[in-house]
Structure formats: C-alpha cells, structure tokens
Amino acid sequence: MLQLQNYINGSYTDPENGTWIDVFNPATGKVYAKLARSGEEDVAKAYAAAAKAFPTWSETTLQERSRILSKIADLIEEQLIPLAEAESQDNGKPLSLALSVDIPRASSNFRFFAHAITQFASEAHESIGTQTMNFTLRQPIGVVGCIAPWNLPLYLFTWKVAPALAAGNTVVAKPSEITPLTAYMLGKICTEAGLPEGVLNIVQGLGNEVGEAIVTHAHIKAISFTGGTKTGAHIARSAAPMFKKLSLELGGKNPNLIFADCDYEKMLATTVRSSFANQGQICLCSSRIYVQETLYEQFKKDFVHRVQQLVVGPPKASETQLGAVVSEAHRDKIEAYIKLATEEGGTILCGGERVTVDDHEEGYYLQPTVIEVTDNQCRVNQEEIFGPVVTLMPFTDEADALQKANNVPYGLSATVWTQHVDTMMRVSHQLEAGIVWVNTWLNRDLRTPFGGTKDSGVGREGGFEALRFFTEPKNVCIQYGKS
Ligand code: NAD
Fold first, then answer.
1. Could you report the per-residue pLDDT of 137-190, keeping only the tens digit for each?
2. Kind and range of the H or E element at 287?
3. What are the start-end ranges of the H helices in 120-205?
4. How far apart are CA 134 and CA 138, in angstroms?
5. Rounded mean pLDDT of the chain?
6. Residue 261 CA to ligand 1 centre (angstroms)
7. Ligand 1 and 228: CB distance under 6 A
8. 7: part of which helix (H) or strand (E)?
9. What is the pLDDT of residues 79-135, one digit of tens each?
10. Does 368 sit in the ligand 1 pocket, CB within 6 Å?
11. Interatomic CA distance for residues 397 and 291, integer angstroms
C-alpha cells in the first residue's frame, strides 16, 4: 500500500517512531494509503534542516527565489491531471472541481508570490530638520510553521507556503492528516524545481501530535494556521506565552443577503454554487441565506427546485456536482445538525438524507439540504456545519438584514445581492466580515487582503499582507552630521 512519508531536507523519510495511520478515500470509504504518524522527533529533524537552510535561502536573490517558485508553479501546472486526481481521491470532491479550481489555484499561489516578492517594498521616513533618516527593513523571520486544513488541501497549503518561501523564510509545514496526498506529491515537485534541501519540510501526522509539536517548538517563530475556530483558540493559548507571530484563518457562518431588486437569475445560479460548491466545505460558502420578504416565496420555490436537480455522485463522473463529504466522522457531524434542525423547529425543504452511489456504497454521500428556520439564534443558524446544508430565512428591510447577518460569533465573509448602489455601499460598510462580495461570490484577486474578524480569525493573508506577516520589520534610524 502507498506510504505517505515526510519530506525533510529534500528527501522522503519514514517517521522516527515507525508508526502509520490509515488514509481513507471518502468516495469509497476504503483505506488507500498509510500516512506517517510523525511526532516531536520528526519536527526536530525538520526544524534542524530548515534552520541549516535559512542563512543561504534568506540571502538568495529575489530573482533566484522568484525563478524557483515560478518553476514550482510550472510543474504543478504540468502535473494538473495527476494532482487533481489525487486531490479528488483524497477529499471526495468532484474531479472537475479539482481540475478547474484546486490545482490551478495552487499553481497560481506560487506564481503570484514569485512575482509579488519582486514588487514588495518597505518604508522610509525622513525626520525633516533633524538630519535623521529612518528606513525599515523587512527581513525574513527564520523558520516558520504552516498548518493547513482538509477542505482545499493543496490550494490552502500553498497559499501559506508560497509567501513564506518568497519572503526568504524556511518552512516546516503540515497538511491535514485527512488529506495529505497532494502535499506529499509537492515535495518531489520542489526537488525537481531546484528548491534547495531543507527550505521546505513537510511533516505528516495528527494535529494534536505533530501539529502541536510545530506550534510549541521553541524556535519556530511564526505560525500560519488555517482550520477550525476551536483549534485556533488552542493554538493561540499555546503560542501566546512564547511570543510567536500568529495568523489564524478560522471558521465561518457566512450570510448571503438577497434584496428584492437583485439580478434574479445571476443571484439564483450563484447562490446554488455558494451554498454547495465542494459539498459546502469551503470556509467562504454562504450557509445562511436571508431573502427580502417580498421575494422570499418565489426564491424558496426556485432555489429548492434547483437544489433538487444537483447531481450527487462519484467524484470521477463528469456529471457529478457534489461528491462525497470528507470523512465518516464529518458526515456524522453534519447529520447530527440536520437532526438538530428539526428538533429546533426548522423545516427541511429538501435533502437531509444519505445518498447511496452504485459501486461506492460505503462512500460518504449526502443530499444537498435546505432548512427553513424561524429563529435566527438557533444552533443550526449559529454554529458552523461545514457541509451541504444551508438555512433560509426572510428579512423585512436593510436594518433587519444586517441585524440577522451580524448576529453570529463569526465574521469571515458575506455576500450581498442588490442592484442599488446605496444599498450595497451601506450594507458592505456595516457587515461584520473580513470579505464582502456584492453580486458575485468567490471572486478572488490574490492581491487583496483575505481573512476574518470575530471568531473567524486574526490577521490577513493575500498579497502584501502575507509578505508582511512573513517578515519582521526593523527600523534603522540614522542621524547624519551637519555640513
Ligand atoms: P482543524 O482545526 O481540525 O485542523 C486544521 C489543521 O490543524 C490540520 O492540519 C490539523 O491536523 C491541525 N491541528 C489540529 N489540532 C492541532 C493542534 N492542537 N495543534 C496544531 N495543529 C493542529 O480543521 P479542519 O477540520 O481540518 O478544517 C475545517 C475548518 O477549517 C473549518 O472550520 C473551516 O471553516 C476552516 N477553514 C477556514 C478557512 C479560512 O480561510 N478562514 C479556510 C478553510 C477552512
């Protein structure tokens, strides 16, 4: 059986303790690989390799760093099909999605930061009249830790690793133990691209073991983490007394506000996508739909009709629109929320059941589910489900929409549908979210700041925000003599 090893100092190596864990294919429910169950010793080895590589990598010219990162982007592009097949097998997502979104974006992440680093600049402040000049150096931090989740495995792994490397750091990184395959494959790509040994080290295993070892390592000075809010809070508690720099991209419960004056067809098609893309397992999916009451009944009828047409099936089939959810445990969690919804007085308008797929009877398939709720504060409407489940509720006016949208602990993203410029401006201004999309969804320009407020995280990724995170500013103040 395939063994997914660590990638340390440019080579694939077994975990020091010799133990392995099962990796499942969610589409079939079968184990397809063994994953290195690494521990502190492996993190220590990875750290040592990264620390040794740091002096040279941090002094490597920007042109050379940029050339190597661009080469990694090229190789990801060349290996689009095997990488997409691996991602789909590991995660259960439709192959078409991995081919069109996940892997192209992983390549773009490297290409974007290969260019961005050549444009990154720092400030200078002349203190007029005192013969004093200040300039700010932006220096790489050293060895940094990057920890990624399972929903967009290579996409989010590279979203951290690429800026960290571009800025001159060396990296100890960990993908999710649920979806480790494409990060494993990235090691070979980095070697082929000429990334020097030890610059990127990938340590595989469980979060509370190897992840914890990265977070608490005395000399890994910054942690960029994407994952659940509970894990983020735990990491913050461990890292804060060690004075580590932290970027936390956490959960969401994103509202979708639909005003009666919207472009109806565009809104409807996009809302189906923003609700159920990747089986609803995108942190930016809109999981709470609020519709202005004059449009509510029409929307409810048309939306449910469209959702019922969605094809749930094996990830490889070209007609599949929803594949399997990522794991058995995650399916159980989603089903528990569907059950809770009815207990809380919600009405299941469609979905709610498992789907049995021919030749994939043990796979984790669920129908896309729409739940009408009457209480904005019910748990199903307040807690992140992270699956193919959305709630639906009417609102009366702008103030009511905002009150409902903002009244959750999360603040990652929000979507607004209106053609009225005043409405879109006022609502965008008042939404408590790090990202607001108006008349669009998941429309990403990699230069823009990305991240959430409230329980959705601390810090921003994307563009120069990421390069600022992965560098330490140092002000140099020089007073020069009078002539
Ligand atoms: P998770 O928190 O369980 O795991 C994320 C990563 O952290 C994994 O690699 C895991 O092994 C590791 N980990 C777990 N415990 C750890 C610990 N104690 N110390 C260090 N590392 C640890 O999250 P998940 O279930 O993999 O991902 C789903 C969550 O991620 C959802 O809440 C989703 O909203 C969130 N997410 C957020 C964003 C964003 O940009 N804000 C993007 C994608 C996913």
1. 999 999 999 999 999 999 999 999 999 999 999 999 999 999 999 999 999 999
2. strand 286-292
3. 153-166, 181-192
4. 13
5. 98
6. 38
7. yes
8. strand 6-8
9. 999 999 999 999 999 999 999 999 999 999 999 999 999 999 999 999 999 999 999
10. no
11. 10
The response to whether residue 212 sits with its C-beta less than 6 Å from ligand 1 reads yes
Any idea which residue has 């994103």 for tokens? 254
Report the pLDDT averaged over residues 187-212.
98
Q: Tell me the whole-structure pTM to 2 decimals.
A: 0.97
The one-letter code for the residue type at 89 is Q
Pocket test for ligand 1, best of 21, 91, 151, 220 (most atoms within 8 A of CB): 151
pLDDT of the residue at 406: 98
Judge if the beta carbon of residue 220 lies within 6 A of ligand 1.
Answer: no
Report the length, in residues, of the chain. 483
CA of 281 to the centre of ligand 1 (A): 12
Contact indicator for 234, 38 with CB cutoff of 8 Å: no
| 24 Cα: distance to centroid of ligand 1 (angstroms) | 18
How confident is the model over 4-22, as pLDDT tens digits? Answer: 999 999 999 999 999 999 9
Question: Which helix or strand (DSSP H or E) is residue 308 part of?
Answer: helix 293-309
Structure tokens at 70: 């661009």
How far does the centroid of ligand 1 lie from the alpha carbon of residue 146, in Å?
11
Q: Is the CB of 384 under 6 A from ligand 1?
A: yes
DSSP labels for 243-280?
A: T-EEEEE----EEEEE-TTS-HHHHHHHHHHHHHGGGG
Instruction: List active site positions.
Output: 249, 283
d(CA 216, CA 211) in angstroms, rounded, equals: 9
Residue identifier of the C-alpha nearest atom 21 of ligand 1: 211
Sign of CA dihedral 385, 386, 388, 390: positive
